[in-house]
Design brief:
By secondary structure, this protein is of the alpha/beta class. It has a domain of about 70 residues. It has 9 helices and 14 strands. The strands form 3 sheets. The protein has a 6-stranded mixed sheet, with helices on one face. Strands 7-8-9-10-13-14 form a 6-stranded mixed sheet. It has a two-stranded antiparallel ribbon with strand order 11-12. β9 and β10 form a beta hairpin. α4 crosses α9 and α5 runs antiparallel to α6. The chain is globular and about 55 Å long. The termini are far apart. The structure holds zinc ion. The site of zinc ion (ZN) has 5 residues, from loops.
Length: about 260
């Protein structure tokens, strides 16, 4: 099978853009469209014609490039059925549990209510890739804006079942702040300490800290580690459910400076 090339870049303040491209079929998709000019610059740089946009959710910093890109490339926009009325130019509506073919590959759709109610993620098992939008970040997760903490717990933790080799592409570069916060509730976690040093060095060099992997996140991401004895002890929640621990961590993060 042909290889899919993934190109990630920064745009706006801290958004990630990703362009995926199949050199055999020519199919080229932008994961969200935070900034049309930035996406077009990448397309031109590598001589690609945009055929699709995969939209994760309706926030402006994920869809504001849709109209311009559709006008310039005539690309098809695939996005969440549950918030289709808020996705500019949407052509194909999809929901969690569905899969569709793109460039001879199966793309799986995951429902991720919490950050927004209709938020979806896309995974390509054949490419060991997950496009998580603003649901799962490296060592973090998205802010719960429209849904409940309980919904977000399930949305984030569903990804534990993906292969540990899966690359996770996120909507934002928030890793440095996330690691600082995570260390306040699990300071003895060696993998987290290592990540702290690695991320600080990468950011000092101006490098992107994503994509991460599911394997790395299982070792360091507190929102996937609600069963960690150290976290539970530090929160005084030894007998709570994982969802309750998740809610406490997410609430503390909101107040973390
Ligand atoms: Zn968002």
């Amino acid at each position: 099978m042909s290889h899919i090339d993934m190109r990630q870049f920064m745009c706006l303040e801290d958004n990630y853009g990703v362009i995926i491209h199949d050199s055999v079929t020519g199919a080229t998709a932008s994961i969200d469209a935070p900034d049309a000019d930035a996406v077009e610059k990448q397309l031109k740089k590598f001589g690609r014609q945009l055929t699709h946009i995969f939209t994760t959710h309706h926030h402006a910093d994920h869809v504001q490039g849709n109209a311009q890109l559709k006008e310039h490339y005539g690309c098809k926009i695939i996005g969440p059925k549950a918030e289709a009325d808020k996705i500019p130019g949407i052509d194909i509506q999809v929901s969690g549990g569905e899969k569709f073919m793109w460039s001879n590959r199966e793309i799986f759709v995951h429902d991720c209510p919490g950050h927004t109610l209709g938020h979806i993620a896309f995974s390509i098992p054949g490419e060991f890739s997950l496009f998580a939008g603003d649901t799962l970040f490296s060592v973090g997760c998205g802010r719960v804006i429209e849904g409940t903490l309980e919904q977000m717990f399930h949305s984030v933790n569903q990804f534990k079942t993906l292969s540990t080799s899966t690359y996770v592409y996120c909507g934002h570069e928030y890793t440095e702040a996330n690691v600082k916060f995570a260390l306040t509730i699990e300071p003895e976690n060696k993998a987290l300490q290592n990540r702290f040093h690695a991320v600080a060095a990468m950011r000092a060099r101006g490098e992107m800290t994503c994509p991460t992997t599911i394997g790395e996140e299982l070792k360091t991401n507190p929102y996937l580690r609600c069963d960690s004895p150290e976290i539970r002890k530090n929160l005084g929640m030894e007998t709570a459910t994982d969802a309750e621990v998740f809610a406490e961590i997410r609430t503390r993060k909101n107040n973390f400076k």
